[in-house]
Amino acid sequence: MQESENRLFKFPKFQDLIIFEDDDLIVINKPPFVASLDDRTGGEVNILRLAKRYHADAQVCHRLDKETSGILLIAKNPQTYRAVSMAFEHRRVNKVYHAVIGGTHTFEQLVVDLPILNQGNKSVSIDRANGKAAETIFNSIKYFKHYTLVECKPVTGRMHQIRIHLATQHAAIVGDSMYRGKPVFLSQIKKRGFTMAKDQEELPVMKRFALHAKHVSFSIDGKDYAFEAPYPKDFATLLKLLEKFDS
């Protein structure tokens, strides 16, 4: 699996991921298919390992799912790590994600407030009795015939929060098979003039689920920070194709 992912995705230099850096903080636009931290097997490339090669005291302040792209905050010293971690813990970090979901959905400040239970082994469920409080605010940004681009603002930071909260609205993120999200194929949206060789298997437009951490803002020691991460190529391509063939 790892080898095939690496073939799909050519890993750039860590320096090329950086969108901001000062004496305390490194902010990167994390590419998809790269874990934020070491996993249990510890064998694969991850952001923490790359960051430590760049700056020995680097610590990743939070995490994104492996397939999720976008803003990731990395502290350059223990004081900053603690300050940023506390800001996340006390919900003083404003986070905005963009997702492409299946179907046309009109979300206007839709608040999904459903407790999430972490069942271990990267599996979560909605559990009103035993789950931890989880809240996400959704707004539709752009409508296509069969899909919607949605802004997602997680108030809390539970594992898979945005993904499972969208799934409860029958609005799973495209390509998110864990929550019944179906991938987008060009043949579905480009009805005319789509041809393929007989022995060729069609691949989805995006080879992951369409979720991107777009914006983060917070304050530390009276200093305001705000960061915006452009879409990676696969996310931008999906939107361009939907604009062209599904509008």
TrEMBL record:
Entry keyword Isomerase: yes
Keywords: Isomerase
Keyword Isomerase: yes
SUPFAM superfamilies: Pseudouridine synthase (SSF55120)
Lineage: superkingdom: Bacteria
Classification via InterPro entries: PsdUridine_synth_cat_dom_sf, PsdUridine_synth_RluA-like_CS, PsdUridine_synth_RsuA/RluA, RluA_PseudoU_synthase
Gene3D superfamilies to which the protein is assigned, alphabetical: Pseudouridine synthase
CDD domains: PseudoU_synth_RluA_like
Annotated Pseudouridine synthase RsuA/RluA-like domain residues: 24-167
A biological process term (GO) from this entry: enzyme-directed rRNA pseudouridine synthesis
Identification of the protein by name: 23S rRNA pseudouridine955/2504/2580 synthase
Organism from which the protein derives: Sphingobacterium paludis
